[in-house]
């Protein structure tokens, strides 16, 4: 088919999650025609890549998608998986996006006449603008050393984990202690499973401190509104691992030292397998100390804020370790350990190979300023630290979407003026 004969849209959105639908909401407000492509179903990751006991780690009041703020009776609680799905279902019903589900975008390439050709599994369309709302968590990361582990060991990625019962009897090795790893290790631990945890460099924070949720304190202190350009690490903050904490059972700290005292076995970063044993870094003590230093540092910042604003609050405190490693163990005999399964919780890597545009750095991550790239007409939305710490959360993705849509509308108006001149 001739390119001039295919359906044309001012905007095509790739991805039907909360970021894509937030963008659709504001495009509708501006009266800008558009189409959303979603290769699965809208919000599919929330239903297919979360474990059964998953819950939010941020309080419900932070759920404020455009025109769809949390309206339940527990604003300071933490929605569980089914509640999250209901909340997102309600958002989709309000937005009523023009969405094509079950249609994957295979390639987006520039057109000689301007704009982009969008090739999908259901044909082609053209667009003046493309908003990439597919997130950055595309390919689960599993190290190549996994190929050398015995075939008798069940291996899954955190995206595949649902509950302890899906794993064979025996001990479980959880690799990684970011939000998913720490919470999955806790889930298995609470189910009575013997857990070995390879601890990474993720920081931790308190759930509650001085009478309030730490998220509430940080919101009042403006942390979620700090632009990436204002952060001491600048764009480097986008590579940071999120703090581990949980909203489970009303919310609490995740204290790996407490788990160790209760029988979970902690090791440093998993580095290799030599055919008989697993090899770890001997950095566990330092890693735990670093996580606690972040924990206490955040609380100290809250102390300062309380003092400067003369806020009446319960007295301050400092976390003191409840357990210390008794020496560093750098190896673990796999057979003797009783480990029968491994859950890899070391994240995802992006895959934007379908987007033919010079907007990526050497690691394959998009380069942008608040979602706007140097390639006119190419935008990103829904990435962590797209603009602020809150960009990847229900509370701030709408703000980012509105900014991008305003940019699209301004660009379209400028184009009309140039055509009329």
Automatic annotation (TrEMBL):
<keyword id="KW-0560">Oxidoreductase</keyword>
<dbReference type="GO" id="GO:0050660">
    <property type="term" value="F:flavin adenine dinucleotide binding"/>
</dbReference>
<dbReference type="InterPro" id="IPR050982">
    <property type="entry name" value="Auxin_biosynth/cation_transpt"/>
</dbReference>
<dbReference type="InterPro" id="IPR036188">
    <property type="entry name" value="FAD/NAD-bd_sf"/>
</dbReference>
<dbReference type="InterPro" id="IPR024000">
    <property type="entry name" value="CHP04046_FMN-dependent"/>
</dbReference>
<protein>
    <submittedName>
        <fullName>Putative flavoprotein involved in K+ transport</fullName>
    </submittedName>
</protein>
<dbReference type="GO" id="GO:0004497">
    <property type="term" value="F:monooxygenase activity"/>
</dbReference>
<dbReference type="Pfam" id="PF13738">
    <property type="entry name" value="Pyr_redox_3"/>
</dbReference>
């Amino acid at each position: 088919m001739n390119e001039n004969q295919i359906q044309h849209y001012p905007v095509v959105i790739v991805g039907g999650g909360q970021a894509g639908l937030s963008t659709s909401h504001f495009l509708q407000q501006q009266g800008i025609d558009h189409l959303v492509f979603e290769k699965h179903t809208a919000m599919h990751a929330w239903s297919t890549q979360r474990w059964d006991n998953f819950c939010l780690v941020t309080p419900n009041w932070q759920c404020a998608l455009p025109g769809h703020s949390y309206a339940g009776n527990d604003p300071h609680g933490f929605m569980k998986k089914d509640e999250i799905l209901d909340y997102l279902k309600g958002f989709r019903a309000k937005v009523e996006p023009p969405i094509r589900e079950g249609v994957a975008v295979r390639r987006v390439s520039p057109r000689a006449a301007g704009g982009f050709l969008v090739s999908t599994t259901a044909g082609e369309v053209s667009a003046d603008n493309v908003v990439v709302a597919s997130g950055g968590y595309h390919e689960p990361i599993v190290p190549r050393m996994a190929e050398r582990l015995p075939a008798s060991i069940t291996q899954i990625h955190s995206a595949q984990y649902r509950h302890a019962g899906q794993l064979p009897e025996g001990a479980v090795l959880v690799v990684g202690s970011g939000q998913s790893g720490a919470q999955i290790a806790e889930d298995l631990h609470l189910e009575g499973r013997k857990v070995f945890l390879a601890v990474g460099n993720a920081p931790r924070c308190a759930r509650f401190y001085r009478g309030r949720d730490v998220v509430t304190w940080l919101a009042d202190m403006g942390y979620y509104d700090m632009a990436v350009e204002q952060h001491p690490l600048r764009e480097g903050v986008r590579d940071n691992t999120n703090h581990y904490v949980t909203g489970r059972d009303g919310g609490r700290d995740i204290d790996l030292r407490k788990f160790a005292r209760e029988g979970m076995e902690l090791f440093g970063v998993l580095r290799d397998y030599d055919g008989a044993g697993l090899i770890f870094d001997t950095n566990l003590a330092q890693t735990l100390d670093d996580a606690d230093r972040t924990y206490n540092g955040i609380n100290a910042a809250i102390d300062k804020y309380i003092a400067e604003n003369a806020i009446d609050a319960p007295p301050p405190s400092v976390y003191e370790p409840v357990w210390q490693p008794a020496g560093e163990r750098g190896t673990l005999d796999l057979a003797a350990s009783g480990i029968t399964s491994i859950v890899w919780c070391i994240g995802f890597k992006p895959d934007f190979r379908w987007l033919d545009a010079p907007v990526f750095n050497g690691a394959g991550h998009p380069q942008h300023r608040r979602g706007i790239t140097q390639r006119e007409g190419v935008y990103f939305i829904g990435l962590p630290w797209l603009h602020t710490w809150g960009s990847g959360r229900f509370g701030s993705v709408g703000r980012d979407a509105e900014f991008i849509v305003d940019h699209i509308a301004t660009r379209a108006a400028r184009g009309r003026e140039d055509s009329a001149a």
